[in-house]
Amino acid sequence: MNSAEEIVVLITAPKEEEAVKIAKTLVEKRLAACVNVIKDIRSIYRWQGKIEDDTEILLIVKTKKKLFDALAAEVKGIHSYTVPEIIALPIVQGQEDYLKWLSESTCAGKDATKNGGRHRRGIPDKPE
Q1: CA angle, 49 then 51 then 55, to 5°
Q2: Is 73 helix (H, G, I), strand (E, B) or coil?
Q3: pLDDT tens digits, residue range 7-32?
Q4: What residues contact 59, with CB distance under 8 A and at least 6 apart?
Q5: How far apart are the C-alpha atoms of 93 and 106, rounded to whole Å?
């Protein structure tokens, strides 16, 4: 299925605790459907005239293009960096059911916590 509305946002953070706080906040506020937290990436970059070489945490955020500004504002309010990396890439194509779930799981969609009693990955939901 072609996609024009869905995006992947990349965010780096200095520590896992901060990355998890950002991830949970974005999902709780329905600014993201899902956030992957990838530990121990190595970033080499120029900052204030010096070459830096740091270990960071990478967040891979699945969301909708129209939520980017609100998502970026939320991240900037939490993030400890003066200039956090918050960049978006288009999802050119994706599996139809996943893109539907992504749309329904963000602010623009309806509540997608239930899907015929099954989690989006096919695992039965926990009884309430």
Answers
A1: 135
A2: helix
A3: 999 999 999 999 999 999 999 999 99
A4: 9, 10, 11, 12, 13, 19, 22, 23, 35, 36, 37, 38
A5: 18
AA letter at 127:
P
* pTM of the entire predicted model: 0.83
Domains of the chain, with CATH numbers?
A: 6-105 (3.30.70.120)
Residue 96 falls in which region: left (phi positive, over 0), alpha (psi -120 to 50) or beta = alpha
Show the tokens assigned to 40.
């121990």
Convert the pLDDT of each residue in 29-74 to its tens digit: 999 999 999 999 999 999 999 999 999 999 999 999 999 999 999 9
| pLDDT tens for each residue of 69-105 | 999 999 999 999 999 999 999 999 999 999 999 999 9
Please list the residues that pair with 64 across neighbouring strands: 6
The closest alpha carbon to 33, from 13, 2, 9, belongs to 9
Extract the tokens encoding 85: 């990396």
CB 11 within 8 A of CB 22: yes
